[in-house]
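note to self: dont lose this again. the chain is below, predicted strucutre after it. 246 aa total, dont forget to put it in the shared folder this time
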Amino acid sequence: MTAAVQRRYQDVAAELRALIRTEGFRPGDRLLTERQIAQRLDVGRSLVRDAIVMLEVEGLVQVRQGSGIYLLDGAATTSAMADDIGPFELLEARMIIESAVAGLAAATVTKADITAMREALEEERRVMGCADGDYSGDRRFHLLIAEATQNGVLVQMVTDLWDRRARSRMWAQLHSRVFDQTYRARWLDDHQEILDALRARDSLRARKAMSDHIAHVSQILMQLSDPDDPSFDGYLFSTARAHQVL
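---
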């Protein structure tokens, strides 16, 4: 991933800061909606979402569920976010890589791999109702799929993606809004479908199941990131591009 691609949402965040200044918004004011910002800056809404999450982490804005985006009384510090990565940009990368990994794993998976994945899935079910938001079983399940490929390079690539997620303040900010356990229940159903496809050694089914799972995660996070438009246009999210190459 080039530095230019990494800066796309950061550039949008800079344009949004400039827009806030030129429009004369003051602390406490409600800003434009995501749709209006996207139209004003002539960019995709997935980039706007990542930019807003970035500004929220910096303390410049606050997203209030069901109300809108509000300007806070604080100064943004872009240097603190220089090494972060947008959550939807990360999800797009995961869709491309992990879907291909799941397809390969279906051809190489062993009985021991399936047993370990089943245990990880059971761990996810046990902690689903915990208040601390433990997602260690989620990570373990995805890494076990990579390990089932018996390809060390792919294992390292998937590990790196999940490490980036763990370090990302933007991801943590957005993911903290996932309070409804029905979301996690749906993701568990997705994991079960992936596991069933791997057990059947069906590469196409496994590839599609992983792609659908990451798309579901993206859709839910996008809903939570856009309180002004709960009936958002789902086809606009960034992972739609990844579907074109699957």
